[in-house]
Amino acid sequence: MILELDCGNSFIKWRVLAASAGMTVGEGVVDSDLALLESLNAIERLSLTYCRLVSVRTTEETGALTSMLANAYGVSVACAAPSREMSGVRNGYEEYERLGLDRWLAMLGGFHLASGACLVLDFGTAVTADFIDRDGEHLGGFICPGMPLMRNQLRTHTRKIRYGDIAAERALESLSPGRTTVEAVERGCSLMLQGFVLTQMAMARSYWGEDFVVFLTGGDAGLVSGVVPEARVVPDLVFVGLAMACPLS
Fold this sequence. Notes:
By secondary structure, the chain is an alpha/beta fold. The chain has helices at 33-41, 59-73, 101-114, 147-157, 165-171, 181-208, 237-245, and strands at residues 2-7, 12-17, 24-30, 50-55, 77-79, 85-86, 89-90, 118-123, 126-132, 138-145, 213-217, 232-233.
């Protein structure tokens, strides 16, 4: 079995694949190393033979996780590393090693699936947009706050904004002007994301006309999928790139 991990700043996304058929045995999202261990131990007949991960955490945090996995399952861990060029994609950052590894792997996965120009939009704690032309040249990208950051900033700096996750979910059932604070905040933030997406789409069309593929990934991709019906929603796009960066052989 193969364990794949996407270690972000807030959460760890994981999945276990059957090595022979590539079928998903288990998957989930957890908020700590311990929670990951508990989730893995709940899988019946778990037998890990390989582990690969991408991490945007500190070297110390990533090292602690890999040591925990090695001690618990006797498995070595392959970690994705920065690269100037890989699988036909050329990193567009002036200092290539400073590009977030999760973004880099999503670009690898997107270019591989598109076989041409693509726009990769990732909706997590932050929102990122990256442009890759048909020759695999990364033209650069953008980063802006995602829903969690926008919401938390408003809650932190505005004393009267207080509501829970259930109320937030209900507020997004419509995008009409809010008649309560939770509706106004959640819908306003959602519309900001949609506006960001439309701007990125316009920029991509200025480069390539209609000859490109747009990918949506990340936990909040569903909030914007309605404004880009032609987009391909690929929740595990980072894992597609991870398999390319850390092959089994």
